[in-house]
Design brief:
Length: about 280
């Protein structure tokens, strides 16, 4: 069985620059692709049923973004085949590292190939955007400077770093953060060439640390070792290191109540690499 990567992302910064009439927020961010993530495998079937053989506890298969992505593509392209899907879940859910969105993107891009749908990357990204704001960046698979609601993407090359990502064991609801009255919503826009980690921030971090003390505790702990920040709307926090060895050394010291992993920041996602190696 061939296993396809479904990598995580980090938001190296997140500035909120406005709000649209439909309530969605305009943002600027760098989506950093990571070398670490889930994996998915697909067996194509001759009937048209879509089955997830490894369900996620607490998520009905019909709500699972993998099944929703596969069904969307099947309907969009009038595919008369189906598939059995296997998932190796490693990424914490609801952590701001995009696990669900990445799973959806892997399902869309790999099934596009295996079902021979022939959709372009752009068409797959547009389809993916209907499932979630973060799906397009995983479909394109490049570390990117993002604008709009996250769909307007420009590839950016970030000096290679190692990230220690820690999950504080609490879930932050994205909608709650974006609906918070005190969320700052008018950061000045920056241009892609102005991006530096040190001069940017995550505009959601203040609200999340106030509402979720465990995120504040984790940030306070991690900042002792390296520059640290929250990703997305939380709850995961990351610290930036120059070497894998330094990041691993701090991972060993993470208190048992939290879980972490070390990943390398990559310009191209492992999924895009795997797809191009197949061609
Ligand atoms: C902020 C990020 O975490 C950055 O990576 C993401 O863009 C959020 O992506 P996501 O979790 O896939 O979010 P979605 O499922 O698309 O949206 C969840 C909810 O967050 C709010 N939302 C999301 C994205 C955005 N740009 N503005 C918003 O206001 C909306 O209320 C929406 O109903
Ligand atoms: N395949 C999937 N993997 C993970 N979560 C899924 C999946 N399908 C549906 N979900 C639901 O989506 C929710 C958000 O999951 P996800 O891991 O994408 O969050 P996240 O890391 O906060 O993402 P983002 O950074 O895009 O906000 C989960 O709590 C779960 O209920």
């Amino acid at each position: 069985m061939k296993w396809w990567p479904s990598p995580a992302k980090l938001n190296l910064f997140l500035h909120i620059t406005g709000r649209r009439d439909n309530g969605y927020h305009e943002l600027q961010s760098v989506f950093q692709m990571l070398s670490f993530g889930d994996e998915l495998a697909f067996d194509i079937t001759t009937d048209n049923s879509i089955q997830l053989m490894t369900p996620i506890e607490g998520v009905a298969n019909s709500d699972n973004l993998i099944v929703r992505a596969a069904t969307l593509l099947q309907q969009h392209c009038s595919v008369n085949k189906g598939c059995q899907i296997h998932l190796r879940k490693r990424l914490p859910m609801g952590g701001g590292i995009g696990g669900g969105s990445s799973n959806a993107a892997t399902a869309l891009t790999v099934l596009n190939k295996l079902w021979q749908c022939g959709l372009s990357t752009e068409e797959l990204a547009d389809l993916g955007l209907t499932l979630g704001a973060d799906v397009p960046v995983f479909v394109h698979g490049h570390t990117a400077f993002a604008e709009g609601v996250g769909e307007n993407l420009n590839p950016i090359s970030i000096a290679s770093k190692f990230y220690l990502v820690v999950f504080p064991n609490c879930h932050v609801a994205t909608g709650v953060v974006f609906n918070h009255p005190d969320l700052p919503r008018n950061s000045a826009k920056i241009s892609i060439s102005d991006y530096h980690f040190e001069t940017t921030r995550n505009d959601c971090q203040q609200i999340v640390t106030e509402c979720y003390p465990e995120v504040a505790n984790l940030l306070q702990w991690l900042i002792n070792y390296a520059p640290s920040r929250m990703t997305g709307t939380g709850a995961c926090v990351f610290a930036v290191f120059d070497t894998a060895a330094e990041a691993q050394r701090v991972l060993q010291q993470v208190p048992a109540k939290w879980r972490g992993f070390v990943a390398q920041g990559v310009d191209k996602s492992p999924l895009i690499k795997a797809l191009s190696e197949q061609d």
